[in-house]
Design a protein that fits this description.
Helix content: 40-55%
Strand order of the largest sheet: 7-3-10-9-8
Number of helices: 12
Structural class: alpha+beta
Number of strands: 10
CATH superfamily of the largest domain: GAF domain
Length: 355
């Protein structure tokens, strides 16, 4: 069977179905589209039925056994999300003055990173009717105290990083060229002398900048530092170094959801590490573009029929963390995208004094 191409009529009908499904939460029948959108774009009721049949055959609509109506699939929602701006990652637009004032009022009195992220989870849950998520790298757990390199074999180096919180992170690096002990010692001394107390994310950005700027002056040293950091010497694992705030889980409880699946979903939301895995898998904390992910069940079956809308938030040159909404696919997409983007950008303004 040839690949289905969604044309103008198919796109119009699919958008109408999703809009109606978001508004009602109920499967949508062709009669409902014909009734609500009488003579919709010159299409008769029979034409709408034919278009819906084609959309179903293409895997964009599905039908439950208990209803004659159709519901959009994850694939359909992906198309819908892309239509918001014509791109896979929708661009946010300004939020209303009323919503901005409501959000700003909620952040009154916030002065620390932890307070900001905790308040963020509350505000996102409140305005989205979904789960508000916020993850932050624990302050000292994300700061370098000391780094040491040991040559294990030609092209293999053990990197040991100690954070200010006392965590010891080690990993074996595979390099394209062999670095003798003297070069490893020089690279470690350079990093320890220049970047002690810095956040790892900021160190990586600064090293990348200096590699280009100072290459001619410190050619041998900077080449060694470049080899080490590009092969993961300054990377960190999320795990226990992340602090996660979650609020609004009750918003996902729906009487129409199967009890077993609901129990599995709630159990997954109770495991903070599962949420860290979810956020780090789909949202790059270093990027401030809003990411919309439909079809989470492909990697986490418990998240069936849920959508993740998230982005990174920064403080100066450092990545502060990740903010996101986890909600039913019936969420108001554009409004939620706008809200997530606005709150992510608030961190710079609210926490500037602390930084």
């Amino acid at each position: 069977m040839s690949e289905f191409r969604i044309g103008r009529r198919e796109r119009l009908v699919l958008t109408a179905i999703i809009d109606l499904y978001i508004a009602t939460g109920e499967p949508v029948a062709s009669q409902a589209i014909a009734r609500v959108y009488a003579n919709y774009d010159g299409m008769s009721a029979a034409t709408i039925r034919n278009v819906m049949a084609a959309l179903a055959e293409a895997g964009l609509l599905e039908q439950s056994h208990t209803s004659a109506g159709r519901t959009p699939t994850a694939k359909a929602f992906r198309i819908y999300v892309e239509q918001l701006s014509g791109k896979p990652h929708p661009l946010p637009v300004p939020i209303s003055n009323e919503l901005r004032e409501q959000i700003d009022d909620c952040f009154t009195g916030v002065t620390s990173r932890e307070q900001f992220l905790e308040r963020t989870s509350h505000v996102l849950a409140l305005v989205s009717s979904g789960v508000g998520l916020a993850a932050i790298v624990k302050g000292e757990a994300g700061q370098l105290e000391h780094i040491h390199f040991t040559r294990l074999a030609p092209g293999r180096v053990l990197a040991v990083m100690v954070t200010r919180a006392g965590s010891v992170l080690d990993r074996v690096l595979q390099l394209q060229r062999d670095l003798p002990a003297a070069e490893l010692e020089a690279a470690a001394a350079f990093l320890n002398q220049n970047y002690r107390g810095w956040m790892f994310e900021r160190i990586r950005a600064e090293v990348a900048r200096r590699v280009e700027k100072d290459r001619s002056e410190y050619d041998k040293l900077m080449r060694s530092v470049e080899d080490l950091y590009r092969n993961g010497a300054l990377d960190r694992e999320p795990s226990g170094d992340m602090l996660v705030f979650v609020e609004g889980v009750a918003n996902l409880i729906d009487s129409r959801v199967d009890r077993d699946r609901l129990r599995q979903m709630l159990a997954a939301l109770e495991e903070k590490q599962r949420l860290v895995d979810l956020l780090t898998a789909y949202v790059d904390a270093r990027q401030q573009a809003v990411r919309v992910v439909v079809g989470l069940e492909e990697t986490m079956p418990e998240m069936q029929d849920l959508v993740l809308i998230g982005t990174g938030t920064r403080l100066g040159a450092n990545s502060l963390g990740t903010v996101a909404v986890l909600a039913h696919t019936r969420i108001q997409y554009q409004e939620t995208i706008n809200t997530v983007s606005y709150i992510a950008q608030l961190s710079e303004r609210i926490l500037q004094a602390e930084h």
